[in-house]
Amino acid sequence: MHIRPASLDDIPAIQALYAEAIAFQRAGGHPSWRELDPGVVEQDIAARSQHAVVLDGQVAGIFSFCPPSAMDREIWDGMAPESARYIHRIIVGRAWKGRQLFAPMLAWCEAEALRLGLGRLRLDTWAESAALIRHYAHFGFRWVGERTTSANDALPPPYRGLRLAIMEKPVGAGRLDRPTEVAMP
């Protein structure tokens, strides 16, 4: 397995992963992405923020590792949004479920954050998804709060009006090396 920056050639695989994830989320009655915004993916690829997890010669998963977006600045307002890197749009293909791919994704993100001199990683997930909140807490992310994104035109349409749980993980000094319990209201 290796992690590499995604390229425009990966867009069909990325689209397939999104479609599969959305179908799975909806079929299970879980909160789901509204749609793939190709513009966001293309921007992430151009900025070298979109990454592919390659396993057995195939794109098994994707994630975005990036500086704060307009949405991040909005939901982390007052909490030094520029002091962290953000992990977004994490998908592992159904064929690779159970292979624990989030752990190496996270290790890569931690190493990269440290290389950049940053001491924290942040992510968000649906506020109503207790299972995802617990999943990320297992990897050391702590629940910080809930935010609802605005209808601001600066946000891509699929990211407007979302109720999100925001979570943060220290890296480097003060890092939590063991799973933690999630504290939610």
Describe this structure in words.
The structure is a single chain. The chain has 185 residues and is an alpha+beta fold. The protein has a single domain (2-170), classed as Aminopeptidase (3-Layer(aba) Sandwich), CATH 3.40.630.30. It contains five helices and seven strands, in the order βααββαβαβαββ. The protein has a seven-stranded mixed sheet, with helices on both faces. The longest helix has 17 residues, at 11-27. It is globular. The termini are far apart.
Number of domains: 1
Q: What is the number of helical segments per DSSP (H or I, 4+ residues)?
A: 5
Low-pLDDT ranges: 174-185
Strand order of the largest sheet: 1-2-3-4-5-7-6
Order of helices and strands: EHHEEHEHEHEE
Multimerization state? single chain
Question: Can you give the mean pLDDT?
Answer: 91
Instruction: Estimate the helix proportion, in percent.
Output: 25-40%
The biggest sheet, with number of strands, parallel, antiparallel or mixed sense and barrel status, is: 7 strands, mixed
CATH topology: Aminopeptidase
**So what's the CATH class?**
Alpha Beta
* CATH architectural group: 3-Layer(aba) Sandwich
**Class by SSE composition:** alpha+beta
Q: Work out the strand percent.
A: 25-35%
How many beta-strand elements?
A: 7
